[in-house]
Amino acid sequence: MIRYALVCEHEHEFEGWFGASADFDDQQARGLLECPMCGTRAVRKQIMAPAVAGTKRTTPDLPPQARAVMMEALSKVRRHVEENFDYVGDAFATEARAIHEGRSEDRGIYGEASPAEVKALVEDGVPVAPLPAPAPKKTEVN
Question: Residue range 117-137: average pLDDT?
Answer without folding.
Answer: 87
